[in-house]
Design goal:
Length: 454
């Protein structure tokens, strides 16, 4: 493992702030998911190392505050780029092409990281340009070159990435994928050098030209697992989580890369750690296929640096994939989830969003309540700037929802504001809607407008 980690990294240190969240069932009745539960953030003196054996902790789980790593490049985005960005630099790449949703935290992280290193980023974002730029879309536009791709074309991600990379490279440049970079570095088996010099067919040093690297959506590449290995190695220190105690890591999963990296890192280090991944954007078969693909690629590229015997036990899977507490189509928000985000923020000072991190928080709370000895550790994957884009999506004035307002007018206005489509969280709000349903919709709009006023 030490040889695998002996390389340049994007992050100056693998450190992260660890908070301990106390879960109390003495909470007051409230609107939202956690109606009878309250939270307390023990961020000053979390029980770590030898203190974990103390009996007076009560119900609690740990949270890794990776959302604090960087203003824009944080959470699992920072971890996945930790080993990838130095490789891109070392191979004289001039341009990076990647893709994501309109409010992609991954795309924004790539744009910022490239700009910090003097590289050009090209971001293929799904859908149309918003009327007002905000959140990660705004950050992507400031730091990178944004191209909006119609949804019908975006479905073939591999094609649009290669097509755009070819256009940038032109006749004199070339294109490399992340695995191409790994092949060169593992062939030389030299990670200490700060630069790899490419040699042309005539044996001379290649002249400087355009070299385009393609990074998959969400950095779903084997090289992205390196940063998770580094994090696992850091956490296994005796004064933190140690190497002997069992832990259940909980993480929200888009591409699933982060969960796979954590599991594989724990396996290679011989740690008794389990990873529970909350599925958000794919089926369990899709995630298991991603798991098999990444493990196979990682073993192919880095197997000579690891104990491959430990990798032989992964046939049945190494990640525990679970559904969200309330499954839904990716990106949809259900009743009570905005209030839950507000409650968590107000009681702990930790921001979560309803699409990603709330899903992990719910599952961490559920496991902790079911088993006080579960030793749950939630990885905060960042991404909270997406709340700005989320709020922007609902351009409806709360004046339309004052007491006694016509519900039919409200529903029609919602549909018009969202280009003819009614958000799922408002599907139940129509003629004959209950007071609870009306309150939830009004609360969501009030929350949205508070962001729009910033």
């Amino acid at each position: 493992m030490s040889k695998l980690l002996d390389r340049r990294w994007r992050l100056p240190s693998p450190d992260t702030s660890i908070h301990q969240i106390t879960v109390s069932k003495q909470g007051q009745n409230r609107v939202g998911l956690f109606t009878n539960v309250s939270f307390l953030n023990n961020n000053n003196q979390p029980h770590l190392g030898n203190k974990m054996s103390e009996d007076n902790q009560g119900l609690s789980f740990y949270i890794l505050r990776d959302d604090l790593l960087h203003p824009f490049v944080n959470g699992n985005k920072a971890r996945k780029l930790d080993g990838l960005l130095p490789l891109i630099e070392d191979h004289d790449v001039t341009d990076v092409v990647t893709c994501g949703g309109c409010q992609s935290a991954h795309a924004a992280a790539v744009a910022v990281s490239c700009a910090e290193r003097g590289l050009k980023s090209h971001l293929l974002l799904r859908g149309e340009q918003p009327a007002i730029l905000s959140g990660y879309n705004l950050i992507s536009t400031i730091y990178g070159n944004v191209i909006y791709v119609p949804r019908s074309f975006y479905a073939d991600r591999e094609k649009i990435l290669h097509t755009h990379a070819s256009m940038i490279a032109g006749n004199s440049g070339n294109i490399v994928y992340c695995n191409d970079l790994i092949d060169v570095s593992t062939t030389t088996q030299t990670f200490e050098s700060s630069k790899f010099v490419q040699i042309d067919a005539h044996g001379g040093t290649k002249s400087h030209s355009t070299k385009v690297a393609i990074v998959n959506e969400g950095a779903g590449d084997a090289v992205a697992l390196l940063g998770l290995f580094r994090l696992v190695d850091y956490l296994s220190q005796d004064h933190l989580l140690g190497k002997k105690r069992s832990f259940n890591f909980v993480v929200d999963s888009g591409t699933g890369t982060t969960a796979i990296g954590l599991s594989l890192g724990a396996l290679c280090l011989g740690l008794p750690w389990k990873v529970t991944a909350v599925m958000l954007a794919d089926t369990i078969d899709g995630y298991r296929e991603q798991e098999r693909r990444l493990i196979l690629e990682f073993e192919k590229q880095f197997g000579f640096l690891l104990d491959t015997n430990k990798l032989n036990v992964v046939d049945n899977g190494i990640v525990h994939w679970v559904d969200r507490c309330r499954p839904r189509k990716f990106g949809n928000i259900l009743e009570g989830e905005i209030e839950a985000c507000q409650q968590i923020a107000q009681q702990t000072g930790i921001p979560v969003d309803p699409v990603y991190t709330l899903a992990a928080w719910e599952t961490a709370t559920e496991i902790t309540n079911a088993n006080r000895d579960a030793n749950v550790v939630m990885l905060h994957t960042g991404g909270t700037l997406g709340m700005f884009g989320l709020a922007q999506s609902y351009k409806v004035s709360k004046a339309l929802w004052q007491k006694g307002s016509n519900v039919e007018v409200f529903v029609k206005t919602c549909a018009e504001a969202n280009h003819g489509g009614l958000p799922e969280e408002f599907n139940a709000v129509g003629l004959g809607a209950s007071k609870t349903q009306k309150y939830s919709a009004f609360s969501f709009l009030s929350f949205s407008e508070s962001f729009l006023r910033l």
